[in-house]
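Table S4 entry, Chitosanase.
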Amino acid sequence: MKKLTISCLMAAALFGGYASVGLAQAANAAESIPAVAVDRQTQVEDALVSIFENLTLRIRYDYIENLNDSRGFTAGRAGFTSGTDDLLQVVQEYTVRKPDNALAPYLPALRAVNGSDSTAGLGGFPEAWRASATDPQMIAAQDAVNDQLYRAPAHKLANKLGLVLPLSRAALYEAGIQHGYGNDPDSVKKIAERASAQAGGAPAAGVDERTWLLTFLQMRRADLLNPANTASAAEWQKSVGRADAMITLYHSGNVDLTQPITISVFGKTFQF
């Protein structure tokens, strides 16, 4: 299972995986998405994740924080964590691309703490991560691991379910960043299974996709409020606003994502 992140370092990408934030510090302000050379679907997917993870439309490759949520350090565009293997994969990928980098010396410690909440041996790692975050090879490493672990599985699952609406596919990707694609009860795959059971099947079986999507969003909200992994409960319950924001987007009728999107969450408003 993945983790929760809504970065406390708001002032500092589109992304961050699982954090708590002082809601009083989140000003009611609008922010515009920067111009990027990507398709609309990718733009929306990345924007949603960045908003929910880091309260910004800018991809936070430099984000890193210990959220004390049983997953060690949470870092980067997708909230990669030292306790759930993906942060280790980023540093390994970065080291393949650039062997002599400031994070490579931490590989033994990252392997040792993988699967736990420990940060033993990682003194100085946050500073090294931030210093490395502007390196094009580090950015490329984060993008590559994100695509491998989250974007590609989201597309595969969406195709299996028969999802064609852009909002459906974006919702699956956004949820997968937080819930992961494993087989635990809190995974996006299991949430989708429960949605299909509730809706009478998946769109691939002829069920109306809008009906299925709303059911999925509601099931995801219920999981945030009462996750099977009790270690995630406190942080995930704080993040229920991201599910509420997705449900509000659904009710706006903009399921094709062709119209401008306004997202209000955790006391801040974003338009893109």
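Residues 40 and 257 are 8 Å apart (CA to CA).
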